[in-house]
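Hi V.,

Quick status before I head out on leave. The structure for the redesign project is tokenized and pasted below; the design run finished overnight.
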């Protein structure tokens, strides 16, 4: 299966359309510059969210983390957050577990 990839820019993300009228299909578009960073376009609503996906180094876990919807998070903010999350994942830090631990502290 061919995985769509493109240079993610604001205009490129704005042009992405709903993948299938049934609403049952979602498509991931991966950035060609930052490996593991992408946009998930869901169903007939064309809801778009920035995501990161990567294996957690030293574990058997693969995580997909939603950064936020494209209409609320700028591409630059999403790219910065993606870079930070991917760096942690390369170090063996699970972002979901890190968020849970931080929430428990408060």
């Amino acid at each position: 299966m061919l995985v769509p990839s493109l240079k993610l820019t604001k205009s490129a993300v704005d042009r992405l359309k709903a993948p299938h009228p049934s609403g049952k299909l979602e498509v991931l578009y991966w950035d060609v510059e930052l490996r593991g960073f992408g946009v998930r376009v869901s169903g007939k609503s064309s809801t778009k969210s920035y995501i990161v996906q990567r294996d957690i180094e030293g574990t058997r876990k693969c995580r997909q983390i939603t950064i936020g919807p494209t209409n609320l998070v700028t591409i630059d903010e999403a790219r910065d957050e993606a870079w930070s999350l991917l760096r942690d994942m390369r170090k063996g830090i699970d972002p979901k577990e890190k968020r849970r631990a931080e929430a428990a502290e408060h």
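Above is the designed sequence. The longest helix spans residues 75-90.

G. will cover questions while I'm gone.

Best,
W.
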